[in-house]
Amino acid sequence: MMFLAAQNGHVELVRLLHQYDPSLMEKPIKLGPTPIWTACSNGHLSVVEFLISAGASLQVSDNQGITPAVAAVQHGHLAVVKYLIENKLQNPEFKMKVNLILNIEFKVSNA
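and the corresponding structure tokens:
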């Protein structure tokens, strides 16, 4: 259920479900992403901020190995990416991936 609330940007419902059962934020749907992954992928900044403040891990990935931060980049969610870079991700590997993806997208759009 938390996955659906995160997917649709319902931060108050995510908070309520977290109060009921905090472990829901780390539970993926069958062979899929966790609530933090889907919130990043769909650009729901308020949900991302809440889940991270509640301790959600950004080190999870979907069944293709894509992390929440990379999903946000792939879907062009600038506010989420900016928040992650400024507040949570001081990870050089992530910054390298962001630069690589942005360079590829720039080259493709200018081809």
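(Above: one complete record from the training split.) The chain has one domain: 2-109.
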